[in-house]
């Protein structure tokens, strides 16, 4: 999936770069790629969202699903480089209370 690039582990975090659009059409593939990488070596997860242009409600739900799995193992999720319009969606939904949004 070209929108998801598993960068590997840096500073005890799984680093994932997101680009383009992630929506109903590819959200399940996004989930599968991230959880497969996470399962290899569970750790905090950092999503680099500099190139992410669009998400929909399905994608928000997918982030929550990933976050729940990660938190169940005692780790956290961090999103960096969000465009203001996408960051606003996370804030409106109150997700900044359960994951770090920088």
Descriptive overview:
With 102 residues, this protein is an alpha/beta fold. The chain has one domain: Transcription Regulator spoIIAA. The chain contains three helices and five strands. The chain has a five-stranded mixed β-sheet, covered by helices on one side. Strand 4, helix 3 and strand 5 form a beta-alpha-beta unit. Helix 1 runs parallel beside helix 2. The radius of gyration is 12 Å and the shape is globular. The mean pLDDT is 96.
Tell me the distance between the termini.
Answer: 25 Å
The major pleated sheet works out as: 5 strands, mixed
Secondary-structure element string: EEHEHEHE
**Over all CA atoms, what is the radius of gyration?**
12 Å
Shape: globular
Annotation keywords:
3 helices, alpha/beta, 38% helix, 5 strands
How would you summarize the topology of this molecule?
Elements: E1 4-10, E2 13-22, H1 27-40, E3 44-55, H2 57-72, E4 77-80, H3 84-92, E5 100-101
Parallel strand pairs: 2-3, 3-4, 4-5
Antiparallel strand pairs: 1-2
Could you provide a short overview of the structure?
This protein is α/β, with parallel strands linked by helices. The protein is built from 3 helices and 5 strands. Helix 3 (84-92) links the parallel strand 4 (77-80) and strand 5.
